[in-house]
Amino acid sequence: xxxxxxxxxxxxxxxxxxxxxxxxxxxxxxxxxxxxxxxxxxxxxxxxxxxxxxxxxxxxxxxxxxxxxxxxxxxxxxxxxxxxxxxxxxxxxxxxxxxxxxxxxxxxxxxxxxxxxxxxxxxxxxxxxxxxxxxxxxxxxxxxxxxxxxxxxxxxxxxxxxxxxxxxxxxxxxxxxxxxxxxxxxxxxxx
Length: 191
Known about the structure:
Layout: H1 2-14, H2 17-34, E1 45-48, E2 54-59, E3 62-67, H3 68-71, E4 77-89, E5 93-103, E6 119-127, E7 133-141, E8 147-156, E9 159-166, E10 171-178, E11 187-190
Antiparallel strand pairs: 1-2, 2-3, 4-5, 5-6, 6-7, 8-9, 9-10, 10-11
Helix pairs in contact: 1-2
């Protein structure tokens, strides 16, 4: 940001309209590049391995290796692709909400559910010292489970809502999460 102010001062001193306009454009670009991301920085990191079968959870110099295949109900087959949606640090715990999508468990891409990309939400709670952790999963998009996501994932401020249909039970289900109250986990209700 300091560099951007120096550039704008030099541009203003030059007094030329064209170079001033270019400098203002450069200033806007520098502000965009150097500004922090919108999500709050909690210092919590989630680093999956290449296949997504294991991940490393890091906070405050401590870390834990998690065998995702064993501890979470992952949708589909590796490779699993993760997206951290929310992180939060409370008094004794760190929390993460992660979206994971995978490959179809069906081996024939032309068969039923062959082109599927099953997805789930993972709620991860860990002690700050990383000694203990727990994971809860909610699959919301999967042909083999007969789950179809309806609409897009809605994220507003610290809240998330996903609606999906269980076509075998003919029910619509809403998954919600509030990062202001991460200890509640993923809430599920029939709508």
